[in-house]
């Protein structure tokens, strides 16, 4: 009887932690890649790393060092769910190379919730079929 109770408790605990993970998942929606949805539990990774881990090919000419802006994304909704602007992003904004609705995927962190993004025309890769 005690064994069964322990097992049930473990199952409930496991289900509870799985539910909490599911609720805490953050999501990226890419409108011009057929509204592709990517879910992640990893809140300390950059958007670029999350995209790559989910096999989304995304331009990143400087290798994610914050030096080029080729990795930029247009944020349609959910800007408040991203981490603060980094030094590199602020520099590019001052140079007018990054607009207020754009972020560098190699620099910004998705902290929570949903962010809806789009690949800018200048960062589209030739081998990918975009839906706009
Ligand atoms: S890859 Fe160059 S700035 Fe992000």
From TrEMBL:
Residues 26-123 form the 2Fe-2S ferredoxin-type domain. CDD domains: fer2. The keyword Iron-sulfur applies. One of its GO terms (molecular function) is 2 iron, 2 sulfur cluster binding. It comes from Fulvivirga imtechensis AK7. GO terms for biological process: P450-containing electron transport chain. Belongs to the adrenodoxin/putidaredoxin family. Keywords: 2Fe-2S, Iron, Iron-sulfur, Metal-binding. It comes from the Bacteria. This is Ferredoxin, 2Fe-2S type. Its cofactor is [2Fe-2S] cluster. The keyword Iron-sulfur applies. InterPro entries: 2Fe-2S_ferredoxin-like_sf, 2Fe-2S_ferredoxin-type, Adrenodoxin-like, Beta-grasp_dom_sf.
């Amino acid at each position: 009887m005690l064994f069964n109770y322990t097992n049930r408790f473990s199952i409930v605990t496991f289900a509870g932690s799985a539910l909490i993970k599911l609720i805490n998942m953050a999501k990226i929606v890419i409108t011009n890649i057929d509204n592709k949805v990517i879910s992640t539990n990893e809140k300390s990774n950059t958007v670029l790393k999350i995209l790559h881990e989910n096999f989304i090919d995304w331009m990143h000419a400087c290798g994610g060092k914050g030096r080029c802006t080729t990795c930029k994304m247009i944020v349609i909704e959910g800007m408040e769910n991203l981490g603060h602007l980094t030094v590199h992003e602020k520099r590019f904004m001052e140079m007018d190379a990054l607009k207020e609705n754009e972020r560098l995927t190699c620099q910004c962190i998705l902290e929570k919730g949903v962010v809806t993004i789009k690949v800018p025309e200048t960062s589209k890769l030739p081998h990918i079929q975009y839906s706009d």
